[in-house]
């Protein structure tokens, strides 16, 4: 079974703090994603990566950065947390490339609920 | 603009009853459509995946249909159980790989005893 593990299920931080959210997948997936999920809205893509050290902005990258130093690990960084970044953050991974394994299916972690006070 | 609209926003049904959730999309070009189930406080889990050429797919008591001409999909749940209480999210991809993927806001289903 695919396993996507997010380091923290719940975090409470203060405005201005630096926040790291870690995500690790064990299926050798090329693609990794960070989404945020807010009530009444669909998941919104923050950043994604299709290879080690590669990153691409999603729909809402402002206030976030990412790091992918190893294939299995994708980190989301909030340089200076703000209250409007209080949200559920979901990491996902998928196969890349042009092979048959690339069905587009995303495998999600359990989520990290961040509260910024 | 690429969009995925789901209805209803929320639904309450009695245990044992059937229900149908709707998804309309405008994503083009279309690659595939997926339904995910998300339990409260957990990450989404895939239920079904359908490509352009498929118009129905089942996963146990869950049956998804797709009409690529009208750009509509439905998820039918048969003989609902309390454990079906969750959000159901329709996800449409414009290309493989998940890069052009649009998520619906979800339908929140409550199954009552």
Structure summary:
Chain A has 117 residues and is an all-beta fold.
Main attributes of the structure:
heterodimer, A: 117 residues, mainly beta, seven-stranded mixed sheet, four-stranded antiparallel sheet, 48% strand, B: 113 residues, globular
Explain the overall architecture.
The complex is a heterodimer of chains A (117) and B (113). Chain A is mainly beta. In chain A, 0% of the residues lie in helices and 48% in strands. In chain A, the strands form two sheets. In chain A, strands 2, 4, 5, 6, 9, 10 and 11 form a seven-stranded mixed β-sheet that branches. A four-stranded antiparallel β-sheet of chain A has the order 1-3-8-7, with no helix packed on it. The relative contact order of chain A is 0.32. The model of chain A has no long low-confidence stretch (mean pLDDT 92). Chain B has 113 residues and is an all-beta fold. Chain B is globular.
Count of DSSP strands of chain A: 11
Shape of chain B: globular
Please, what is the average pLDDT of chain A? 92
N to C succession of SSEs of chain B: EEEEEEEEEEE
Number of helices of chain A: 0
Query: What helical percentage do the residues of chain A reach?
Result: under 10%
Please indicate the percent range of residues of chain B in DSSP E strands (runs of 2 or more): over 45%
Taking the sheet with the most strands of chain B, its summary is: 6 strands, mixed
Largest interface, C-beta closer than 8 angstroms, per-chain residues: A-B, 28 and 26 residues
Approximate shape of chain A: globular
| Biggest sheet architecture of chain A | 7 strands, mixed
Q: Helices and strands of chain A, in N-to-C order?
A: EEEEEEEEEEE
What's the helical proportion of residues of chain B? under 10%
Radius of gyration of chain A: 14 Å
Number of helices of chain B: 0
How large is the share of residues in beta strands of chain A? over 45%
Distance between the termini of chain B: 41 Å
- Spans of at least 5 consecutive residues with low confidence of chain B: none
Which secondary-structure class do the elements of chain B indicate?
mainly beta
């Amino acid at each position: 079974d695919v396993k996507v593990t997010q380091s923290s299920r719940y975090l409470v931080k203060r405005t201005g703090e630096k926040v790291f959210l870690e995500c690790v997948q064990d299926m050798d997936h090329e693609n990794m994603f960070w989404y945020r999920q807010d009530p009444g809205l669909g998941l919104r893509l923050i950043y994604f990566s299709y290879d080690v050290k590669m990153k691409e902005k999603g729909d809402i990258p402002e206030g976030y950065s990412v790091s992918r130093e190893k294939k299995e690990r994708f980190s989301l960084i909030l340089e200076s947390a703000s209250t409007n970044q209080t949200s559920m953050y979901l990491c996902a991974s998928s196969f890349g490339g042009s092979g048959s394994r690339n069905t587009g299916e995303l495998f999600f972690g359990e989520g990290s609920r961040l509260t910024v006070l | 603009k690429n969009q995925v609209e789901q209805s209803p926003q929320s639904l309450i049904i009695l245990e044992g009853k059937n229900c149908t959730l709707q998804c309309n999309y405008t994503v083009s070009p279309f690659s595939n459509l997926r339904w995910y189930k998300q339990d409260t406080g957990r990450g989404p889990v895939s239920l079904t995946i359908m490509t352009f050429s498929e118009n129905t797919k089942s996963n146990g008591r869950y049956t998804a249909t797709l009409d690529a001409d009208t750009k509509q999909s439905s998820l039918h749940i048969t003989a609902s159980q309390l454990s079906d209480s969750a959000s159901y999210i329709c996800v449409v991809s414009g290309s493989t790989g998940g890069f052009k993927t649009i998520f619906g806001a979800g339908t929140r289903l409550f199954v009552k005893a």
